[in-house]
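Appendix C: a fully annotated inverse folding record. The material below is reproduced so that readers can follow the format used throughout the book. The structure is listed first as tokens, followed by the designed sequence.
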């Protein structure tokens, strides 16, 4: 874990204040990390395809003046985004085919995914939903009631995944309302959050949110998204402890990316830092082939070798499963297991 003294982390008890202060332009991002104007034209062009969004606390962990910083590479618009190979497309997982109700995707037998919001605290340049039609899936409370009625007609569904965007970008009152709607369906045994916010805006794990989570009868699971050990700091560790203390199970899924974490050494550090704060390494994803992200791709053969090197260098419980998602398949495809 990065000691507090080693990084000037922007700490606040008000997560909404930090969201209001987020960096939203290439100019502001370059200034914040000390990079020159030679990076600006490409960054401006790429940001027109997918806007810049990043919180101050995440930027504070980046190395100044280093365009190859692994955290910066995840959010920095680059010229490579402007020319994608033909097999990198807008909807690489064919999610449109599973959009069964407004805001609901039913891809896997026993669970649905809810697109709770289009908002994120950070725009990851590799995001497979960077072209998702959020305007067609936004929901009012009344619309959520109607959409979630899908659960009554599908008793095989025992898990609801809250995704987006990032579900923790909802206010506590909106989130409590949504969870209350889900409570009406006794077939739902688990509620799973997929969120970057415990990593990029750890102040989001506030007392009111913890009270909401602790009041649920369903098991609450958080799958966080951390790709590099430098993302883990004192505040992330504190947020994780609060969640665990309130009965939340924590898992991590990372994306294997060129120039970010494409080595066994980098992945081992990530697993060790996560495990130290109570987060279980879960999946290491081969990147989804979304338009604009081809420069991140690590070929499968190389990924398998990296995963084998990771298995040879650390304990099995620190090794996430190497997986990819293939449109139309009934589950994720395991490319290499941790065993």
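Designed amino acids, in order:
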């Amino acid at each position: 874990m990065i000691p507090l003294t080693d990084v000037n982390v922007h700490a606040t008890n008000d997560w909404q204040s930090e969201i209001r202060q987020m960096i939203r332009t290439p100019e502001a991002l370059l200034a914040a990390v000390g990079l020159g104007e030679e990076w600006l034209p490409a960054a401006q062009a790429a940001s027109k395809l997918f806007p810049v969004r990043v919180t101050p606390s995440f930027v504070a962990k980046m190395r100044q003046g280093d365009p190859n910083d692994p955290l910066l590479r995840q959010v920095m618009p680059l010229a490579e985004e402007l020319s994608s190979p033909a097999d990198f497309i807008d909807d690489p997982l064919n999610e449109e085919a599973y959009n069964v109700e407004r805001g609901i995707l039913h891809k896997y037998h026993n669970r649905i995914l809810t697109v709770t919001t289009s908002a994120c605290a950070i725009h990851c340049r590799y995001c497979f939903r960077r072209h998702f039609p959020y305007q067609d899936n936004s929901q009012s409370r009344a619309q959520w009631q109607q959409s979630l009625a899908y659960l009554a007609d599908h008793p095989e569904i025992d898990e609801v995944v809250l995704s987006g965007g990032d579900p923790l970008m909802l206010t506590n009152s909106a989130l409590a309302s949504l969870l209350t709607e889900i409570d009406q369906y006794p077939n739902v045994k688990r509620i799973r959050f997929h969120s970057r916010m415990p990593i990029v805006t750890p102040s989001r794990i506030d007392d009111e949110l913890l009270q909401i989570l602790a009041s649920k009868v369903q098991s609450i699971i958080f799958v966080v998204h951390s790709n590099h050990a430098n993302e883990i700091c004192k505040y992330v560790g504190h947020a994780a402890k609060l969640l665990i203390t309130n009965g939340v199970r924590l898992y991590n899924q990372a994306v294997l990316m060129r120039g970010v974490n494409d080595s066994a050494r980098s992945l081992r550090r990530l697993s060790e830092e996560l495990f130290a704060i109570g987060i279980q390494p879960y999946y290491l994803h081969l990147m989804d082939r979304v338009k604009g992200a081809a420069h991140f791709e690590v070929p499968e053969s190389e990924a398998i070798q990296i995963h084998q090197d990771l298995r040879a260098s650390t304990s099995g419980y620190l090794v996430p499963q190497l997986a990819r998602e293939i449109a139309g398949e009934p589950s994720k495809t395991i490319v290499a297991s941790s065993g």
